[in-house]
Amino acid sequence: MAGLAALGLDDLSLTTNGMLLGPVADQLAAAGLRRVNISCDSLRTDRFGSIRRRGELATVLAAMDAAEAAGLAPLKVNVVLLRGYNDDEILDFARFARESGRIVRFIEFMPLDAQGRWEREQVVTGDEVYRTISMAWPLDPVDDGPTAAPAERFRFRDGIGEIGLISSVSQPFCGTCNRLRLTADGSVRNCLFSDDERSVRALLRRGGTDAELAMALRQAVWGKWPGHGINEPGFLRPTRSMSMIGG
Hints:
Structural class: alpha/beta
CATH class of the largest domain: Alpha Beta
Number of strands: 10
Strand content: 15-25%
Helix content: 25-40%
Shape: globular
Number of helices: 9
Radius of gyration: 19 Å
CATH topology of the largest domain: TIM Barrel
Mean pLDDT: 89
Distance between the termini: 14 Å
Number of domains: 2
């Protein structure tokens, strides 16, 4: 972490399930980490365990507290909704955002699950989340100006809290996407839904130059698709799940 911070990056953040974050939050902040995104798909103890299949909700909530105490803010909470599993917690998470001051981001379920059981009928769309919350607490969009960020931001009209919607399935943002992903095993992917990878690990291990590395990144950007194709009849899900991609 300290090595990355020394590069002078504008934003150094970490996305984590929160299970091991609490005890090391202070150390990560001291090393240069600026903020964290913590995944939490249920606020109900029994349901949390059945969805996550490991760990405890109390540990994740404690990690959120530790992160904020260490100055890792604003803290974002990532929630993936699955119809029939946790979609009845939309208002619970909205209330959590209002009461905690944390930014809750609702992410549409994508075909990247390790079980390979994704079905479109399970997707709870961003529009549905917006309508559900707005009926309880009206929302106003946050105008960030031109941005390539994946989340649409909304503030509660009464000024108490904020949520985000990442509608990557129902409302693809491929046309403005400027993201690349460095996987845990050293490959660059230009889209989560593409199997096109370029190994920068192999390049560096054979003594590749900075110019060659820069060209590999440019080639990844040049190869970005006009769209991920999830909504097209011929869509083929990636061979690697999110847990295998990492990064």
